[in-house]
Design brief:
Length: about 240
């Protein structure tokens, strides 16, 4: 498969596998196939928010592609591991009631589990046996990365994003500490399930290079618009 970028410049289209590394782009396609075209070890940090495997359906009828099956889990994280530079990190959100499936896929790919993050919300996304007021992610390592100079806390506040441009939109503010802690200025940050592009905007705000992949055409367009706006405004203005 040949992937498509949000850029009109055809030079970003890759016609043969593993030929070049697109940067500061949002690519449209299945992340498994797109990552297969990327060179091994070419990504410095992965921050991603894959489907939670919960058959998501919101009040206005919005759904999430691939939230109803696990076919993509193992191949996607296998490719994520391959493209990640040795001795570096991936932070990935996950659905808490499917933790066994996610953990199996991460370990099968080769990742070590080195931390767990809780994102404290001031509202409940659902109320049933509990008021469900947090999101969660694992910090996973490929190889043995050096310890961060200033380790961040594993509990982070997560304000409500409003979910205006994506049904499960993460607020950029909650992602900034992760980008800061696990990558450096100029690092290449990948989000293979980028949705509306929140992680990419966070990377851009912190002067990292970014690469996003999104399967849904509408979300790909939304992410492309978000990133185009950050480029238009410049990093300082976006961070303000
Ligand atoms: C939980 S959402 C990410 C939301 C994002 N963090 C945001 O703030 O907007 C997961 C996204 O993964 C996309 N997706 C599902 N399967 C995919 C695949 N195989 N390749 C690329 N994207 C995929 C979905 O369309 C959805 O937008």
């Amino acid at each position: 498969m040949e992937y498509q970028s949000n850029n009109n410049d055809n030079s970003n289209r890759v016609s043969s596998p593993k030929r070049s590394l697109p940067v500061n782009r949002v690519l449209h396609g299945d992340c498994i196939e797109v990552m297969r075209q990327l060179p091994a070890g070419s990504i410095d940090f992965i921050l991603t928010d894959p489907p939670y495997l919960v058959n998501y359906l919101d009040r206005s009828g919005r759904t999430i592609q691939n939230d109803n099956n696990t076919d993509w889990l193992k191949p996607a994280f296998k490719e994520a591991y391959r493209v990640l530079r040795p001795n570096s990190f991936m932070v990935t959100f996950y659905g808490w009631n499917k933790v066994d499936r996610f953990m199996d896929a991460w370990r099968n790919a080769g990742f070590y589990v080195v931390g767990h993050l809780v994102f404290r919300k001031r509202y409940a996304s659902k109320t049933r046996f509990l008021r469900y007021e947090h999101e969660q992610a694992y910090l996973l390592a490929k190889g043995r990365p050096a310890l961060p100079e200033n380790p961040i806390a594993d509990v982070i506040d997560m304000p409500y994003s409003g979910n205006k441009i994506h049904p499960t939109q993460k607020p950029v503010e909650a992602l900034l500490p992760l980008i800061e802690a696990f990558s450096k200025e100029g690092s290449l940050v990948l989000d293979p399930f980028c949705g509306s592009g929140s992680a990419l905007v966070a990377a851009r705000q912190l002067s990292r290079r970014y690469l996003g992949i999104e399967l849904d055409l509408g979300h790909h367009a939304a992410a492309s618009r978000q990133l185009a706006a950050t480029h238009g405004r410049g990093i300082a203005a976006v961070a303000a």
